[in-house]
Amino acid sequence: MVRSLVAQLLSKKPDDFDLDFIDRKFIQALEIGDLRALCDLFEGLVNQLPPSAALFLTIDGISFYETKDRVQTTCAIMSRIIDIADRSRFVFKLLVTSPGASKYVSQGFAKDQFLWLPDVDPEDDDAFEYNVGVFKERAGNQARMAQKSVMRTNSELREGY
């Protein structure tokens, strides 16, 4: 996971990063997959982003990393990422998803940081209208206009528009 995050950062603008903090000992630790070194590398790169930057980090399917063999490493990585995000001097948005309930990583987040979505059958034509209905209750008039647009779009799609 951390290797992927580092690779994604470096692939965008590799010349924008100063890698002088990486010495031979650090490289050796990276070569053997040392978790602390990988996280230090990620943090070292993230800390070089300008204050005007916005970093959007999405970790999809975190529960797949919560296996018996990976759970401790996964929790350590997530703890480090959250710590980096909390200390960042720029906009750092972290979205962690799970297709089911996360047993361990979720414990690192406050309950008000969760967004629970209802199970929806993709074949159910009313599923989307249900969600619009919930939104309508919360957003008032704006939702009424959106619902009219959605209903029009849905009927256009059904008619083969």
Q: Which term fits the overall shape?
A: globular
Name the helix and strand elements from N-terminus to C-terminus, one letter apiece: HHHEHEHH
- The N- and C-terminal alpha carbons lie at a distance of 42 Å
Mean pLDDT figure: 80
**Largest beta-sheet characterization:** 2 strands, parallel
Total E-strand runs: 2
| Alpha-beta content class | mainly alpha
Low-confidence stretches: 149-158
Report Rg. 21 Å
Oligomeric state of shown chains? single chain
- What's the number of helices? 6
Question: Strand order of the main beta sheet, please?
Answer: 1-2
Strand fraction: 5-15%
Residue share in helix: 40-55%
Structural topology:
Elements: H1 2-12, H2 24-31, H3 35-46, E1 54-59, H4 71-87, E2 91-96, H5 126-139, H6 141-158
Helix pairs in contact: 1-3, 3-4, 5-6
Describe the structure in your own words.
It is a single chain. With 161 residues, the chain is mainly alpha-helical. The protein is built from six helices and two strands. It has helices spanning 2-12, 24-31, 35-46, 71-87, 126-139, 141-158, and strands spanning 54-59, 91-96. It has a two-stranded parallel sheet. α1 (2-12) runs parallel beside α3, α3 runs parallel beside α4 (71-87) and α5 (126-139) packs antiparallel against α6. Mean pLDDT is 80; it is low at 149-158.
Structural descriptors:
two-stranded parallel sheet, single chain, 161 residues, globular, mainly alpha
Task: Briefly summarize what is shown.
With 161 residues, this protein is mainly α.
